[in-house]
């Protein structure tokens, strides 16, 4: 970090992008932080932001826009995980990719699969056969085997979470 002005800071990444990077594609960088102001009775403030850019320049025309944080906040109010420091779906999808696996349970942490399984835990065939659906979270092992999505129309109503958008 270097100070870039009063209350402004600049962060320089240590690792450079590989030389073969597709400079015409949209890339995303996520940043999260917290500031503990408990000594002033102000608690801890959290912030997350995802910056989308095209290295070659030009407008961002494509992002991973499947679920919006506002959809999740319709039920969860303030979507945040990992102790509160990571907020919003845009941040989540940067790490929760198809190749990510929970090292404790062996379950995939791919955002789409994980989210659907969490919200239908009680109805998973493996759970109905007597197993459990668990993930090792920030606070330890969490059991989702009893969860049933209670949104308008249940999981059959995809538009409860998946809002259609023409935005990039």
Radius of gyration: 19 Å
Overall pLDDT, averaged? 87
Please give the largest β-sheet: 2 strands, antiparallel
Order of helices and strands: EEEEHEEHHHEE
Helix content: 10-25%
In the sheet with the most strands, the strands line up as 1-2
Instruction: Using the alpha-carbon principal axes, give the shape.
Output: globular
Measure the end-to-end span.
31 Å
What class, by secondary structure content? alpha+beta
How many E-type strands? 8
The portion of residues forming beta strands comes to: 15-25%
**Stretches where pLDDT falls below 50 for ≥5 residues?**
none
Q: What is the overall number of helices?
A: 4
Keywords, please?
168 residues, alpha+beta, two-stranded antiparallel ribbon, 4 helices, 8 strands, globular
Question: What's the gist of this structure?
Answer:
With 168 residues, this protein is α+β, with helices and mostly antiparallel strands. Helix content is 17%, strand content 23%. It starts with a strand and ends in a 25-residue tail after the last strand.
Description:
The protein has four helices and eight strands, in the order ββββαββαααββ. By secondary structure, it is of the alpha+beta class. It has a two-stranded antiparallel sheet with strand order 1-2. A two-stranded antiparallel sheet has the order 3-4. Strand 7 (134-137) and strand 8 form a beta hairpin. The longest helix is centred in the last third of the chain and has 9 residues, at 111-119. The radius of gyration is 19 Å and the shape is globular. The mean pLDDT is 87.
């Amino acid at each position: 970090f270097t100070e870039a002005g009063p209350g402004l800071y600049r962060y320089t990444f240590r690792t450079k992008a590989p030389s073969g990077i597709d400079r015409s594609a949209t890339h995303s960088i996520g940043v999260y932080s917290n500031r503990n102001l408990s000594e002033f009775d102000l608690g801890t403030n959290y912030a997350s932001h995802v910056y989308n850019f095209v290295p070659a320049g030009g407008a961002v025309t494509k992002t991973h826009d499947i679920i919006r944080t506002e959809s999740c906040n319709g039920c969860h109010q303030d979507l945040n995980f990992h102790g509160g420091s990571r907020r919003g779906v845009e941040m989540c999808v940067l790490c929760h990719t198809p190749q990510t696996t929970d090292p404790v349970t062996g379950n995939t942490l791919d955002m789409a699969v994980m989210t659907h399984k969490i919200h239908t835990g009680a109805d998973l065939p493996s759970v109905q056969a007597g197993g459990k659906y668990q993930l090792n979270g920030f606070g330890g092992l969490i059991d989702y085997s009893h969860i049933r999505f209670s949104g308008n129309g249940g999981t059959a109503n995809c538009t409860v979470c998946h809002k259609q958008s023409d935005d990039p």
